Amino acid sequence: MQCEIVAVGTELLLGQIVDTNSAWIGEQLALSGIDCHRHTTVGDNRERMMAAFREALDRADAVIVTGGLGPTQDDITREVVAELMGVTMERDHGLADRIKSRFAGRGRKMPANNLRQADVPVGATPMLELPGTAPGLVCPVGDKVLYTVPGVPWEMKEMLKGTVLPDLRRRAGTVSVIGSRTLRTWGQSESGLAEMLADEIDRLDVEGGPTLAFLASGIEGLKVRITAKAPTPGEVEAILDDEEARVSSIIGPIVFGLDGANMESVVLDELVSQGLTLAVAESLTGGLIGSRLTDVPGSSRAFRGSVVAYAGDVKRELLDVTDGPVVSEEAVSAMASAVCRVLDADVSVAVSGVAGPDPQDGQEPGTVWMATCVDGETETVKVVFPFDRVRTRQFTVISVLNLLRLRLLKRRGG
Amino acid sequence: MQCEIVAVGTELLLGQIVDTNSAWIGEQLALSGIDCHRHTTVGDNRERMMAAFREALDRADAVIVTGGLGPTQDDITREVVAELMGVTMERDHGLADRIKSRFAGRGRKMPANNLRQADVPVGATPMLELPGTAPGLVCPVGDKVLYTVPGVPWEMKEMLKGTVLPDLRRRAGTVSVIGSRTLRTWGQSESGLAEMLADEIDRLDVEGGPTLAFLASGIEGLKVRITAKAPTPGEVEAILDDEEARVSSIIGPIVFGLDGANMESVVLDELVSQGLTLAVAESLTGGLIGSRLTDVPGSSRAFRGSVVAYAGDVKRELLDVTDGPVVSEEAVSAMASAVCRVLDADVSVAVSGVAGPDPQDGQEPGTVWMATCVDGETETVKVVFPFDRVRTRQFTVISVLNLLRLRLLKRRGG
């Protein structure tokens, strides 16, 4: 089964919008075991849209078209598909009522031109999902199929998950259910992780079962994705549970969370479950640690605040740092202890380092001292990041939060 | 003149990377007055790459191919283009030396397979730019042309600017030079800005001259882009200078900077030029104000630090906030004054508000009090943002920095 993607929109060609839809759909197709050999982008132009749709249908079994379904005169995907199918357009009154009720639900009156969105090519089936006002359509073309979905990402995603992907899998004869789970890790390189899991991957190759894939995600760490296929959702979950347990037992505490969890939310949850409050003392990160922690709704249950001591004398006056270099073990250790007292918190993290681009106090850019303070005891780590200013700051945030996570795990265990 | 873009890379089809190159190139082509009717993405597959290149060349006068120029066996763009041109590959020894010296310059030994990158189709010309180790090539195909550039965005951009765009303009017979300048604004809606500039746009329509375009950029504000065309770079600059002065005189101080400047860098520059230091007191932003300021290299010349008082009692203990609601004019005013004293700074900004999703102290999410303190005098503003948590925090940062910018401008003027 082969499926191509065609994105429609002059604004995409002009670079006013970056097309993130095609990448997302590409990933979903791969997860569903459906091949995708080409993405195409064309403008809102009848002739060029027609050519792109035809060519894609010649090569593939199915085509997903995003965009061009709005209510304005520019939005001509429906008309072009009707011509391609060799049929006329007809008002779908049930669909018109559903669109009207979308407006009524928001207390707004529907502009007359929105009714255009209820005109569908004869033979096409509107999708059940209608997150916005643009209906998705399943359009048979000979023994092939073309799906039209809106360009608005969250509307598109709902229709892909609800209608398009299940329909594609049915057509591909895939009667089984596919599910995946992502283990999020921090602290290992991709090759290191691959080495740790080499035996397990070999075992899965020989015995069959779920597959493992590594996805590098920059400052979000490395993800290990387990993908399983089985006749029922319950069986898929059981396979995922079993494989998650195996992988976790092999790679251990470098797994910090599952699926949507990030380092900040994991640390905050652990603090709340142990009834602890957190303070932060920042230097090179300038507020980024606190900012990322407070991105998480409900962070006020544990996060008390942060002292951003960017100037050296602020570190000395507010955070008990003594004379001498501020990028040092002594300084960062003093910062971690002092900020617990100043902000009246149970635990803390502190960082002091050289973000670059220039050296500081004779230390190279990328040199970072980190400290954690738990139950009054301070531990420190020095890292030299080989990155630019932006990435040095970002990696510092995740690294120091990971150090705190490991100490909190140990505290809970012991 | 028509030019298509073909992005090569299986990782793009699988959604492991979002293709931002095509959008950027599309924008540059539009700015150069060159039409682009299609973007295509294909995997690292000889047959499918060949088909995509041929089809693009059939439709257009020129094709820009990104990706597939690396040193590994997967990277076959060079070979496919040679086949398309009907020529063999030949080692370019000058190019080989340049690639070797790229490695030597970084103190590294060149792996042998990197020499593959010096094999070029006979008749193709390597570009002068070599920011990485993958050379870009100008490849004549009949009376048309195909450019190959690396997929790494900064390498691609250098070659586009240095070779591809000038070459395309020459082929298009565009003897004129095109230039643009962006005025960055904060504090007006797109329709408000369009209304303010309606007469000027009408005047330009009638009299000819540069064009004006509005670009919405979310938390980066609205951009007004002036694009001018003239026989020489000097004349383009003169037109841009003239139009910038006209637009600035119409829309006034909502223009905060030009081109690459952002709100943080503009505020920091103004502080440095007036010899002032800055302190920040943050609540709902959790450190985001300090984080964005310290994203700017050299921010330590003015930024002293920040007190992130997320918990209410931290505001009271460290920042002189008295009993009563912390999302209030009194509280934010006290925070701004106190943080100047605590961090020994000349000026300050302070924010206290409800990021959401839940109300706080009976105040709705989006309610934000902001204060600026300059020369010991505090001014406050209340805003109710209609946004979610993330955008409320982001808009708070830019809004409060803009308030400080306007006060600093007034201070300099008077």
Walk me through this protein's architecture:
Two copies of one chain form a homodimer. The first copy, chain A, has 414 residues and is an alpha/beta fold. Chain A has three domains: 3-171, Molybdenum Cofactor Biosythetic Enzyme, Chain A; 177-258, 2-Layer Sandwich (Alpha-Beta Plaits); 263-413, Maf protein (Alpha-Beta Complex). Chain A contains 14 helices and 17 strands. A six-stranded mixed β-sheet of chain A has the order 2-1-3-8-7-6, sandwiched between helices. In chain A, strand 13, helix 11 and strand 14 (303-309) form a beta-alpha-beta unit. In chain A, helix 2 runs parallel beside helix 6 (153-171). The longest helix of chain A is centred in the last third of the chain and has 25 residues, at 389-413.
Q: What name goes with the CATH superfamily of the largest domain in chain A?
A: MoaB/Mog-like domain
Level of helix content of chain A? 40-55%
Quaternary organisation of the protein chains: homodimer
Query: Helix tally of chain A?
Result: 14
How many domains in all of chain A? 3
Q: How large, in whole angstroms, is the Cα Rg of chain A?
A: 27 Å
* Overall number of strands of chain A: 17
| Structural shape of chain A | elongated
Helix/strand class of chain A: alpha/beta
- For the termini of chain A, the CA-CA separation is 53 Å
Strand order of the largest sheet of chain A: 2-1-3-8-7-6
Greatest interface and its residue counts?
Answer: A-B, 69 and 68 residues
β-strand amount of chain A: 15-25%
Low-confidence stretches of chain A: none
